[in-house]
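Sample intake — tRNA-dihydrouridine(16/17) synthase [NAD(P)(+)]
Collected from: Prunus dulcis
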Amino acid sequence: MASLLTAPEAQARTLHSDPPQDLDDVLCSDQHQQQEEQQQNFADTALSRCLSGESRIERAWAHWSKLGRPKLIVAPMVDNSELPFRMLCRKYGADAAYTPMLHSRIFTESEKYRDQEFTTCKEDRPLFVQFCANDPEVLLEAAKRVEPYCDYVDINLGCPQRIARRGNYGAFLMDNLPLIKSLVENLVQNLRVPVSCKVRIFPDLQDTIKYARMLEDAGCSLLAVHGRTRDEKDQKKVRANWDAIKAVKSSLRIPVLANGNIRHMDDVHDCLEATGADGVLSAESLLENPALFAGFRTAEWVPGNEESKKDGKLDQADLLVEYLKLCEQYPVPWRMIRAHVHKMLGQWFRIHPHIREDLNAQSILTFEFLYSIVDRLRELGAGIPLHLKETNAATICANGLAT
């Protein structure tokens, strides 16, 4: 795994390197500790099994507070929330981030999969490592491998795609709540790092609240709620239900994050105010504009009054170049890089589709070629600036409101 070292050193796998030293501060364990430290770990785990519900709630909030109560969070995205992209978003205001969804069974079985799909570095914190799973023991084995390098092990209970249906994971586990409960309980009883879950809502609000309370009772320390049902897959046509997220937040005692309809910082402020959530997640909008949390927005979301906006002196090509440099430092599969190029330069390619066609024709990518794509677009004057509101980017404070 990658780490913030020299370029050759950056290609070393984190799972074979020394974990962070401030483990007490992040409540994570080190699987390479000496025997006496391991014995203490076992004692801590035994203690966590005996914690009352009230004590678990207190511990959940203590951990969240130690992390600084992050408000602006990069959501988990298959193949798209990998280390270089997370680091770019962190530079532009993200307080925390999720890894892409990792398949727990493949993660336990394939060293190649672990090497390529999970990379991190010491600056990549707070970090949620997300797994999809339908077997409690397989999930635990996978979670043990990443426990020293993250702040939460997260269970994906929200993926609505056909691949999740075929694999019997994600949102399709909503049909088997006892299995979901066992997934959570097994991790809670055997990990020192807290367990979080990311869910979708049921069509019936009371079913959603019962579901959320079950997860809290099972030991979930943090719940991220996507305010759409399993069948509401088109995010452009179906707005997320913030009222449902508010109802979940009001019904639980653990931290709750809101997911859905976060396209710019005004949405962040409105969502926190409407739901009372402890933070927000953004996915699709960040792919197009990784500087969203710094207050930048694409022209699509700029108010019609020209006096209400100004050129932010930053565009998506600038962000892509920064992303590519991070990819050179922290290598990831080319399929991930290709996807980000299309997302960040999508508007530019619509103006000059022949350059997109040149990209699509490349079966093997190089950084030299990708940098040349940016240069060609700039020469053609295809630049589309990002904008900041005249009042500057809102700052999200600890109380969840903007100043």
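Post-analysis note: Confidence is low (pLDDT under 50) at residues 2-48.
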